[in-house]
Write a structure and sequence with these properties.
- It comes from Hemibagrus wyckioides.
- This is Eukaryotic translation initiation factor 4E.
- One of its GO terms (cellular component) is eukaryotic translation initiation factor 4F complex.
- One of its GO terms (molecular function) is translation initiation factor activity.
- Keywords: Initiation factor, Protein biosynthesis, RNA-binding.
- The chain has 197 residues and is an alpha+beta fold.
- Helices cover 22% and strands 23% of the residues.
- The protein has a 6-stranded antiparallel beta sheet.
- The longest helix is centred in the middle third of the chain and has 18 residues.
- It is globular.
- The structure holds 7-methyl-guanosine-5'-triphosphate.
- The site of 7-methyl-guanosine-5'-triphosphate (MGP) has 7 residues, from loops.
- The site of 7-methyl-guanosine-5'-triphosphate has 7 residues, from loops.
Length: 197
Amino acid sequence: MATAEPEVTPNTSNSEEEQSDATGQEIVNPEDYIKHPLQNRWALWFFKNDKSKTWQANLRLISKFDTVEDFWALYNHIQLSSNLMSGCDYSLFKDGIEPMWEDERNKRGGRWLITLSKQQRRADLDRFWLETLLCLVGEAFDDHSDDVCGAVVNVRTKGDKIAIWTTDYENKDAIIHIGRVYKDRTSLLSENRSSPV
Ligand code: MGP
């Protein structure tokens, strides 16, 4: 999504009474309205289990974003995972990677999986999914963030799942690093509980 273009009136004075120009227009700090770019553009997808259709036909792109502000606007606009019907998924993937095994960037890949008990839907699902989203858009995996393709939350009667998908099962350093960081970040959410990954 486009970032707002600043319309800055030059401010040559520091004095408070000169915070408007000759036409009386207010001078605004560009920081107040330029959106903060993310390192990647991301696409959020929704899956609804309609058994009369193929798996791929049930997958829908919701929206793409590439700024911090647009991420939160989208996140705040959609339902929490815990409110979705069983059988639904959200997937957040880098723009250009489809959230399916068949994509070039996924087909040699793997995933770090969190399996949640039925009881954890109420207390943990939304917090863990948000933390997963923040790990992705915040590029939490240092030099190995390039190995991350995306993440999926599956809302299921038998127990919900959250996974980060990586691009190549042979990139051992990247996979271990991503797993360690993800485990640390999600363990912080679940003190006194067993490790989720
Ligand atoms: P699922 O939605 O990943 O997990 O896969 P679920 O529902 O918990 O089931 P389980 O098999 O893990 O117990 C369910 C089914 O959806 C798979 O067996 C496939 O038929 C289909 N499916 C899931 N994914 C992620 C893909 C995909 O990437 N490509 C295709 N073609 N089908 C998929």
